[in-house]
Design brief:
There is one protein chain. The chain is mainly beta. Helix content is about 0%, strand content about 50%. The protein has no helices and 32 strands.
Length: about 375
């Protein structure tokens, strides 16, 4: 056959290793020992070689097929013909195919060159069940748990889970909680959830969660007689809420407040701070007030009845303003009740579950204050 191969068959088949010109010689011997031979030159065309590989075969994602065979060099033209188990065809060299149904698929690649040569390869592709990973999480404040809500799904069977929280910590829980340590600086973590199908195809998704620092709610104060100057340690907060322990309130960063009711009293002033990330912090400190009460304008139009009473009494206020505040103190100056107020209400029905004794009711309205004694005798 011109390549070292021989045959004694009448009509042989022979495969040549390469496409070149070959001289084929046929030698015939008769039963009488007579010999004859003939030689012919043939030109062998190059045959394409059909072969392919594929990536993960999952029912919710495209399967990528890669041609790994050979084809004749240019100018020979080779046509690709893929048949995906009767579920579609294409002539793309390296196609993608979505198999919606799980199971084994016979995929066939046929190569046909315009020199008259062709080749076919069929392989079995096992399409597996795939999950769909998803979850929800909200940004959190420092010292709070991030709560992860798993929304992953699979058409049948159960899932296993692997959470990667972005801080080297992991979890296999379905919907875990996780506490991040950020050391006083806001940070964002990329969290990955892998939804694992036993024996099938996993899916993963990554989302970011921000962990924000809590604001510094510390404050300092200086007293000058009955007047106290408060200074918040954190400037530029979104919201300041001061409670001065006697029913008074303020929302500025550095308020000044007058404690006017008692010669000597101990109050707990509290500052609540909310920052731009909506994180909250609160600090309370004891403020000790001494000295005489300055003369101030008194509020009129306030009535408290009955007095004495058994712990139930009514307060009426004429022309209430938006800054109205009502608090009840014991004789030592301790706040025993802060009453919710409204600029639309003129009457408040009070129920005091306290011991018998004398109490002071402080009403502030329109910048003026009225303090009246109430005797409770059950």
């Amino acid at each position: 056959f011109g390549d070292g191969g021989i045959s004694t068959a009448v009509n042989p088949l022979h495969t040549f290793a390469n496409a070149t010109s070959k001289t084929i010689k046929l030698k015939v011997t008769s039963e009488f020992g007579c010999l004859d031979s003939v030689s012919h030159n043939i030109l062998l065309q190059e045959t394409p070689k059909a072969d392919f590989s594929w990536g993960a075969a999952c029912n919710l994602a495209n399967t990528s097929f890669t041609f790994t065979g050979t084809r004749p060099a240019s100018p020979i033209i080779t046509v690709f013909n893929w048949n995906f188990a009767g579920e579609g065809t294409t002539t793309i060299e390296n196609p993608q195919k979505l198999f919606n149904i799980v199971g084994k698929k016979l995929v066939t690649l046929t190569l046909t060159s315009n020199n008259g040569c062709s080749d076919v390869m069929t392989k079995e592709v096992n399409v597996k069940l795939q999950s769909k990973a998803d979850f929800n999480v909200d940004d959190v404040c420092e010292d709070d748990d991030a709560v992860f809500t798993n929304k992953s799904s699979v058409s049948q069977g159960n899932l296993n889970y692997l959470w990667k929280f972005g801080d080297s910590k992991t979890s296999n829980s379905q919907s875990p909680r996780h506490r991040y340590v950020i050391g006083g600086s806001s940070k964002t973590f990329n969290v990955t959830l892998v939804a694992i199908v036993p024996g099938g195809c996993s899916d993963s998704i990554t989302k970011a969660v921000s962990v924000n620092t809590i604001p510094n709610s510390d404050f300092t104060f200086k007293t000058s007689g009955r007047k106290v100057y408060f200074t918040a340690s954190t400037p530029g907060a979104t919201l300041y809420q001061w409670r001065f322990g006697d029913g008074g309130k303020a929302t500025s960063a550095n308020p000044t407040y007058d404690y006017l009711e008692y010669p000597v009293a101990k109050y707990y002033a509290c500052l609540s701070v909310i920052n731009a990330a909506n994180c909250f912090s609160e600090t309370c400190k004891e403020v000790f007030i001494t000295g005489s009460v300055d003369k101030v304008s008194k509020l009129s139009g306030v009535k408290i009845y009955p007095n004495p009473n058994k712990g139930n009494f009514t307060i009426t206020v004429e022309d209430p303003k938006s800054d109205i505040a009502i608090s009840v103190y014991d004789v030592l100056g301790n706040v025993v009740k802060v009453i919710e107020t409204s600029s639309f209400k003129t009457e408040y029905n009070i129920d005091m579950n306290v011991a018998n004794g004398v109490y002071m009711v402080k009403i502030t309205n329109g910048g003026l204050t009225s303090t009246q004694k109430v005797t409770i005798n059950k």
